[in-house]
Amino acid sequence: MGWVESLQQTIDYIEDHLLDHLTVNNIAKEANASPFHFQRVFTLLTDISIGEYIRRRRLTLAAQDLFHTNVKIIDLAFKYGYETPEAFTKAFRRQHGVSPSQARRYMGKLQSYNRLVIQVSLKGAEPMKYQVVEKEGFQVVGIKKGFSIANGENLLEIPKMWDQVNSDGTTDLLLHLNSGPIDGMLGICDTSGKSSSDEMNYWIAAAYDGKPQKGLVSLDIPASKWAVFEVHGAMPDAMQKVWKQIFSEWFPSGGYEHAGTPELEVYTADDPYSPNCYSEIWIPVK
């Protein structure tokens, strides 16, 4: 099954089971992907998390029920997965700007989110520069923090983590230690040791063949075949743009699959705010 067909099948599965207890594990099975990888790709391509998509769709249907039926609000709350009418009312007001009772009286404008439909469009006019390389396993040292990806916590908190290491001297220390096969600072997404599909470790690290200094921890990156993509432009927009191109254009037509091991963002010594800044994205492939 192709990439587009697989994603559309997954969306159809979500829509067919909106009133059921949906889990990321069951959803990801429809796409033949790991829960973590599928959540990241879904968010990259749609700009919302799976959980947020499900919440928006349920509250959209709840608003339609308010208009077209006489079902009690308490019963609608239970129907759409809320344990109390108060929790339902709070979520409904956050999306629509009015309470369920106000919506039933046609007070205010509602916010409707339609089901996603994947449409194939012509892309790729803007070239992507990449090469495929093979490297033996190597060690990185740095700091790591755990984040949830379910509600986009990682997207909000990882930039704060970078601000912290840039201000407390950790960046200078890692650049001084950097002596491995990759030059530059590394941002690494890693799920090893995580029991939940919603969790990830993010590392700020450098390749280093030696014992970690106090305050730093190490991670072994396995021998891999890597697709290495060039990134040109100011952070973070340039990096985010290439990430989206990789999953919306390159993977569907490139003939490779993600190998499921840690991904690398490689940051050079260039000014990150310069339009001429150069960086890279390393994806393990098979």
Automatic annotation (TrEMBL):
Q: Where is the HTH araC/xylS-type domain?
A: 8-106
Record's superkingdom?
Bacteria
Q: Which PROSITE patterns match?
A: HTH_ARAC_FAMILY_1, HTH_ARAC_FAMILY_2
Cite the SMART domains for this sequence: AraC_E_bind, HTH_ARAC
Classification via Pfam families:
Cass2, HTH_18
Give the matching InterPro entries: AraC_E-bd, Cass2, Homeodomain-like_sf, HTH_AraC, HTH_AraC-typ_CS, MarA-like, Reg_factor_effector_dom_sf, Tscrpt_reg_AraC-type_HTH
Keywords tagged on the record = DNA-binding, Transcription, Transcription regulation
PANTHER family for this protein = RIGHT ORIGIN-BINDING PROTEIN (PTHR47504:SF5)
Q: Write down what this protein is called.
A: AraC family transcriptional regulator
- Organism annotation: Halobacillus naozhouensis
